[in-house]
């Protein structure tokens, strides 16, 4: 049986060499942000058999950066991409393989030179991490 993401998630099209081994990754592209998601599988595991903290950090970073772009466009601010200046992650609980992880940016403060964002990472709807990012506007 093939995994089906929850509605309204669709395949994530902003792939990169880093995330290629983690596919499939899904996106819920909203008017005010991107929400990324995936089913935690063995390819995402650390040595203890759970989703690796680096995976959580990287996808939270990705979701926040994409969400900064949505917000900048909405506010008519010029940009040509973002570079992560600072990233912090607080791990609240240990998710398990087989769970649906979603990376939801719930705070964005855009500016001309920096964009600030925060995200909540959930496993089957329960918070497992909080992330904060500062992004240089290119």
Summarize the structure.
The chain is built from one helix and seven strands.
Your description of this structure?
- The protein is an alpha+beta fold.
- Helices cover 16% and strands 39% of the residues.
- It has 1 helix and 7 strands, in the order βββαββββ.
- It has a 7-stranded antiparallel β-sheet, with helices on one face.
- The longest helix has 22 residues, at 53-74.
- The chain starts with 9 loop residues before the first strand and ends with a strand.
- The mean pLDDT is 95.
List the keywords.
PaaI family thioesterase; seven-stranded antiparallel beta sheet; hydrolase; 138 residues; 16% helix; ACOT13; HotDog_dom_sf; 1 helix; alpha+beta; TesB_ACOT8-like_N
Set out the fold topology.
Layout: E1 10-11, E2 26-29, E3 34-39, H1 53-74, E4 82-91, E5 100-109, E6 114-123, E7 126-137
Pfam families: 4HBT_3
Keywords: Hydrolase
Protein name: PaaI family thioesterase
SS strand fraction? 35-45%
Elements, N to C (H/E): EEEHEEEE
Number of extended strands: 7
Largest sheet, strands/sense/barrel: 7 strands, antiparallel
Distance between the termini: 43 Å
Count of separate DSSP helical elements: 1
- The gross shape turns out to be globular
Mean pLDDT: 95
Rg computed from alpha carbons, rounded to a whole number of angstroms: 15 Å
The level of helicity is 10-25%
Oligomer: single chain
Output the structural class. alpha+beta
Q: What low-confidence regions span 5 or more consecutive residues with pLDDT below 50?
A: none
Strands in their spatial order, largest beta sheet = 1-2-3-5-6-7-4
